[in-house]
Amino acid sequence: MDSPKTLSAPQKALHKLGLESPLSLALHLPFRYEDDTQLTPLRDAQNGESIQFEAVVLSHEVVYRPKRQLKVDVLSDGLTCTLRFFNFYPSQLKQFQVGATLRLKGEVKGGMFGLSMMHPTVQIAGSALPDTLTPIYASTAGLAQSYLRKAVLSGLKKATELGLFETTIPPSLEPPAVWPLVEALQFLHLPKRGTQLHTLQDPTHPAWRRLKAEELLAQQLSQMKARLARSKVAAPALKSSLSVEPPLTSRPLTQALRAQLPFELTGAQERVLGEIAKDLSCATPMHRLLQGDVGSGKTVVAALAAAQCIDAGWQCALMAPTEILAHQHFEKLSSWLEPLLSARGLKVAWLTGSQKKKEKTLSLSEIESGQAALVIGTHAMIQEQVRFKNLALAIIDEQHRFGVEQRLTLRKKSQVGGEASQDELEPHLLMMSATPIPRTLAMSYFADLDVSTLDELPPGRTPVVTKLFAEHKRAELIERVKHQIREGFQVYWVCPLIEESESMDLTNATQTHLELSLALKDLTALGEQAGVSRLDAQVGLLHSRMPDAEKKAVMHAFKEGHLHVLVSTTVIEVGVDVPNASLMVIEHAERFGLSQLHQLRGRVGRGSAASTCVLLYALGEHGRLSETASQRLKAMLQTQDGFEIAKRDLDIRGPGEFLGARQSGASLLRYADPLLDMDLMTWAQALAPKMWAEHAQMALAHLERWQTLRSEYLKA
User: How would CATH label the architecture of 248-454?
Assistant: First the structure.
């Protein structure tokens, strides 16, 4: 392979796209095609149509009005057409010699001055027309289509000669209605003259089905390989104790915690805890995803899993994506566990990037010594100076908000001091998500994980009423806000931006904060409010650019009831728990994703009071909402079921919303779509274990072909 210093600019561009081998080039498929196999008479061209035709040069000149340009007049079929080039080199003038016959391709425009073409492609006429349609590939700066096309076709030829497309699936196990791989690739890279464009773009065509089937099988094989590899890795066996024996302080931590909880666990929580406890008690690492709707009780499940880990004499770490969410967990888990841990000489530690040096140094010392049995914090937990004594369980909340590398780094934080026999132990991993994952995605992208589902809400949760308000009803909505404050309740008002944006006409958080502060100043009470007739409503502002200490102070003030209204960006999307908040206003709701709207709605209805979520929307430039926005808002009105919301969001937006940083910027599926290719997904899922068991060499060869899946990331 050439040294990077000796590569030409186009070769560097190929490397930037990851096209470094014949195989990767052959699998780089066109995203559209142009038909250069025929000529269209100029007289038959429709205005705005892109055609290819031949013409004779009548004249050329460089003109300067309205700006410098090369103007070329050509004659074809008795019609004159003017070619205009605003970007040109003096050397190009040679090809426009008077009398030369050219082959031109571009968009024909008609007007009062006759026919014209802007920047057509030009070549000397006389060469034979191509026999195949012209593929157009995804490219990058410095990489011309002509160069990329030659490289791809060369890669296809070489990969075929090397036998890289030989079958890796036993003939008896092939999926239905597919072409052989070589035939499929040749069809898609070199479609013959007369091939209809709609045929090439048909996702059910046997050529496309072959690529999708191969890719889905590779995905399933890779995930199964990760599972098999994990089964050979050792992890601490964290035995749980199910007996309940007095006194409280001598009971196992799990039982002591259960005994002091002020509520009964739901049946779903009990079931999920059983699944997790069983995994933790095994000597192979748990890789489990805990999913549940807003308010389903994931935090207490995490606390009891942590307690089982601590009971066994090991450390547990809980990492959250934001300091606000991490602090929510710290407050709640500390209130439950700290009294029980202190009796055992242990504690709950807090670790974030915003900590003062003295406080952080103390936390680091407690973590390394093992005194900190439970460590709660943000991504600061994966920094190099953080050393655990014996980390056995890593809990990651809102896992889709973390990059794959961050999750892998936390898993590698297990350091067992002084016990050489345990040096290779890997911690158990519990990932949590408040965005339920539809079965289709669980089968494909999350097939390497065990999934536990909290599908039951605790009793006493008040249903949230959802209402739509158009922007012109803003004043009426502010009156509703006043009414909630008079009744002694609190209000969230969520905005999509922090500051003015030239590209998006959205009301921002700072402007809304000022507007509400003025509108609610010296709020007149309807009735006697603790002996006062006027209420000075306090409006807080919270957004991601504020210093962490300031964010924490604002959130604390709102939780304590010192602020009546909290104007915020989506930083409060997950985890914030203020039972007295009874109204959620989401500004420009049409701009939010469906899952995000559902998460924000879940911030209210957490107490006993009737709660409302208002979706405040603005119509588009044509006086109506887009189809996608309409579908989202309609879904919010029709259901509060997070699993149904997730299914509809998947239908509207596709898989990307649910995967987050799991892909680490590289799509795990380039060709297949789990929604559209369910039959192939089911085939691949059933075939993968059979391949590993009965055709291991073929399975390895298949994986090697599709190495773009990056199996290391799938382990996360």
Answer: 3-Layer(aba) Sandwich (3.40)
